[in-house]
Write a structure and sequence with these properties.
heterodimer, A: 162 residues, mainly alpha, 7 helices, B: alpha+beta, four-stranded antiparallel sheet, 2 helices, 27% strand
Chain lengths: 162, 246
């Protein structure tokens, strides 16, 4: 086999990318999970968003936080490619990354959260769980702080009746 | 004070969601090309696998078909080809307040459009003899004004000077895309074998079907009638291409 590849040292942007993945993958996954309410789709979305980050790494200003960029990208991907997932009739198969016990818990909580729209779910998770200010969460979700507050309020009302 | 029902659900959601772990190492597109552009270990591994697979295909398999931390202010040497990118998402249907990603003002991921076939030029630069086969060296140039993406393998067809298909390859099923900056040149090898038909009209060339369009490569010469030898009369010919690479 004559294939030889020279593996160069990582470029600074590649190091920044690796660091962003380590630091933000869970945040991106949870955001995708809130939006889709679908574990496997959220994993796919998170990976896809980081692929986008990788492909853009040489054009980005790494002195600024990467997470907002990742979340906006995730939302755009989710609203586009995964729109059809919400219409499918069959429940998704258990993700391979989940063991049975966690999967059962996830199905329960996903059912409860299933009554919310993606915006309501994401708004609630970002503000109540992730602790983001309304203004910042609104920017990620492409809406206004006022609309976000209303979405959170609706979400809580729905969950109280869930 | 008792937690509300919504708080209980959110607590459970948080608990379950925080049990998630990354499925593996950071996803990398494979980058090749310009000097100085490093290639990650993961990317190298993928590239090795891809090359091995490509050579295995070309060497052994007959076709069934007949016919945050580090500043980089300047646009550093961007990779000339980045593969394994996902298809760009379309713009959102809603026109709410524009999101303001704080990271970049430069083209967002969604702005990498599919290449317009009219902007892509292909040319055969060399026909090379091989044992019972012919290998066409093909060059692809993005003559468009901007960066675009296209599939990294296309459906190859050996055609004669009148555009008739002499040997037709299988349609590409790849989900892998390559990014082509304006002016970018990439190349591939196309392995053709077992042509048992009549002498073709010159010039013989290669066509490619991509994104619903057919691109015919400029032939090596206007009088070229290069076809592979007939190895098995009655057997279908074979044509395969490697992925485009810089």
């Amino acid at each position: 086999m004559g294939v030889t590849i020279n593996v160069a040292a990582l470029e600074p942007t590649e190091l920044a990318y690796e660091r962003a993945y380590d630091e933000h993958w869970p945040d991106v996954f949870r955001f995708a999970l809130a939006w889709t309410n679908d574990w496997a789709a959220a994993e796919d979305l998170a990976q896809e968003s980081f692929l986008r980050l990788w492909n853009q790494r040489n054009r980005l200003d790494w002195s600024r936080p990467a997470l907002p960029w990742l979340l906006v990208t995730t939302r755009r991907l989710a609203t586009d490619r995964f729109r059809q997932l919400r219409r499918r009739l069959a429940p998704p198969p258990p993700p391979e990354s989940l063991n049975d016990a966690v999967h059962a818990r996830w199905l329960d909580v996903a059912a409860a959260m299933g009554s919310l729209t993606p915006i309501e779910r994401s708004a609630l998770v970002m503000t109540a769980i992730e602790g983001l200010p309304y203004e910042e969460a609104a920017r990620v979700l492409g809406t206004t702080a006022g609309a976000l507050r209303a979405a959170v309020s609706r979400a809580r009302t729905k969950l109280e009746g869930a | 004070m008792e937690p509300t029902r919504s708080d209980q659900i959110l607590d459970e959601w948080s608990s379950v969601a925080r049990s998630a772990t990354p499925p593996g190492p950071p996803p990398h597109a494979v980058t090749t090309g310009v000097a100085g552009a490093g290639i990650s270990l993961a990317g190298a591994a993928v590239l090795v696998v891809a090359l091995v697979a490509a050579f295995a295909v070309l060497g052994n398999r007959p076709s069934q078909s007949g016919p945050a931390g580090l500043p980089t202010a300047s646009p550093s040497p961007s990779p000339s080809v980045a593969v394994a990118i996902p298809a760009p998402p379309t713009p959102e249907p809603t026109a709410t307040a524009a999101p303001t990603p704080t990271l970049t003002p430069t083209p967002s991921p969604s702005l990498i459009a599919d290449c317009n076939p009219a902007d892509l030029a292909t040319q055969i630069t060399l026909w090379e003899g091989a044992a019972g086969s012919r290998i066409g060296h093909v060059q692809l140039t993005n003559n468009g004004s901007g960066t675009c993406s296209t599939a990294d393998t296309w459906q190859p067809v050996l055609v004669d000077g009148q555009g008739r298909a002499l040997i037709e390859g299988r349609p590409s099923t790849t989900a892998t895309r390559i990014i082509l900056p304006a002016g970018q040149v990439v190349t591939t090898l196309v392995l053709v074998s077992n042509y048992c038909g009549p002498v073709p009209a010159a010039p013989v060339s290669l066509s490619f079907v991509v994104d619903g369009a057919t691109l015919t490569a400029a032939p090596e010469s206007a009088t070229d009638t290069t076809v592979p030898p007939c190895n098995g009369p009655g057997q279908p010919g074979s044509i395969e291409m490697q992925p485009w690479r810089s």
